[in-house]
Structure formats: structure tokens, C-alpha cells
Amino acid sequence: MTRFFIRAWFGLHVLPFSMYRLLAFVVSALLAILVFAFGAERRNVTLINLKLCFPESSRAQRLAWTIRHMFLYVRTFLDRAWLWNCTEAQLRERVVITNPERIQAHSPGKSRIFLAPHFLGLDAAWSRLGLEVDMVTMYSNQKNLVLNEVIRQGRERYGDQLLLSRQQGVRPLIQAMKKGRPLYYLPDMDFGEKDSVFVTFFGVEAATVTAVSRLSRMLDADVIPVTTMFRGGKYEVTLHSPLSNFPLADDAESTQYLNHCIEKWVKTNLVQYLWLHKRFKTRPPGQTRFY
Question: Which residues form a coiled coil (predicted)?
Fold first, then answer.
């Protein structure tokens, strides 16, 4: 069943792009309605996250954000049909780096960390950057082995990218960075208390990994934020200036600073941030669970 679904999904990339965009819009709208209506768990997770992060918003506003978010989640998921199968020329035309000069804008001899918060287009940014530079990243294995292999192959499609599972640990990652590979790192998921600190995200305590702070200090690495926006059926990737005076005095302070930076970017692109994730699942001792 999974293989049939993947063949049908990937078959969409052969359509003319204008036809694909129309079909993807219709399919995404229908699936978003179904997910909103029948996917109670993910609907509730999204609404809870939005209420926690934007307590001043009305329920009607949060419902509207949730529906738009689900539509964009489905749409950007479908886009992997062409993202992982198109030519390099098509990828350059459909995923645009707004300031490509910053790809190499780092201090001579220093390592680089491309800091990629969980905006829905982060796979588009990874693939497009892969045409310019060979990177290393970490990923979480999927329970479905067929889907896991499809995702891994898709993310290795362009350039000579190195994907490491979290089960492999950080040693091979550090070795790859020492050899000159930039790290493409997603800093804002709840992986539990291990290697994390509780710092606020939109005023709510969130278990947040300290890896960016630790790696940047250990390897003397520049941290270059990367944000992605889906717009008009295509993607815009923005590389921000390297974070100045980073890391800060300690890992907790540095991680809190990163969360504040992510808050700023989320406010400019709210519905395209990954609200479906249980960002506040891990609670400090004694605190009530949200989900």
C-alpha cells in the first residue's frame, strides 16, 4: 500500500507545473478539510500551541490559522513529488535563494551551522542549498521503512549530502564538520529532557536542545539562520546574517537567545511554522501536561 501511494504521489511531478499547481491546490484544500474535521489529535495540538503562544488571539483567529496551516502542511508535503524528482534547472527556478552571496559569508577557516527552524519549506531549502554546498544533517528514522528510505533518498538527491540518524550520535557529525561540511540543523523540536534545557518559547517553558550552542563553541562555528517561505507555488529561501557574539555565556542563555530569534521569524510567517508538533510535550517537574 505504501509503495502504491508513493508511486502515485511521485507521479505528479511529470505534470506541467501549472497543471500540478492547480491539482495540488485542490487536493491540499480537500485533505486539509478532512484533517481538520477528523484529525482531532493534530487539530487539538495545533490549537493548543497557538493558544499558548498567542494567548491574546481569539478562538476564531486560531481556528483560521489552523485551517491555513493544515492546508500549507499538506501542500508542502505534496511538493516533495517534484522537489525530490525534478532537474537541477527546475529546482533553481522553483526554489529561489534571495541572497545567495551569504552561502559563503562566514569567517575564513570557521565551521558553519545553517540554523533551520521548522518552517514547512525546510526540505526545499535543504535541497536548494544542496546544489551549492555539501552538508551534513541529522534525521529521525520513520517507523515505516519504505517511507523512511524514500525520505532519505530524496534528501540525498542533490549534491553529496551526508545524512546521519540520531542513533549514530554526534561523533560522525563532528568529524564531518571538521572536514569542512556545514551542518544543517533543526533546533526547535521537543526531544525530551536529555541534552536539553527549559527555556521559554513565546513565554512558555519548552525543552530545547543545546546542541547549537555546544557545537558552535566546540568547533568555533558561525551560526547562519535559514528561513523558508512558500509563496505562489514556489519557495523563497533567506539566509540571515551570522549571529553575532554567539554563543553567549552559557548554553541555557544561548539557547534562550535562539528561541527569541525563532519567535521573531515566526511572527513574520506564522501559519507556515510547524504547529502540528507537540512542542511543549516535555514539562518541568510538577507542571501539568498540555496535551
Answer: none
Could you read off the pLDDT tens digit of each residue along the chain, which spans 291 residues?
778 888 889 999 999 999 999 999 999 999 999 999 999 999 999 999 999 999 999 999 999 999 999 999 999 999 999 999 999 999 999 999 999 888 876 667 789 999 999 999 999 999 999 999 999 999 888 888 888 898 999 999 999 999 998 888 889 999 999 999 999 999 999 999 988 999 999 999 999 999 999 999 999 999 999 999 999 999 999 999 999 999 998 999 999 999 999 999 999 999 999 999 999 999 999 999 999
What's the CA gap between 180 and 226, in Å, rounded? 19
SS3 for 281?
coil
Cell numbers that stand for 2 in this block:
505504501
Q: Return the exposure string of 223-247: e unless at least 16 CB atoms fall within 10 Å of the residue's CB, then b.
A: bbbbbbbbeeebbbbbbeebbeebb
Cell of 201: 518559547
Q: Domains of the chain: which residue ranges?
A: 2-272
- The Cα–Cα gap between 103 and 262 comes to 20
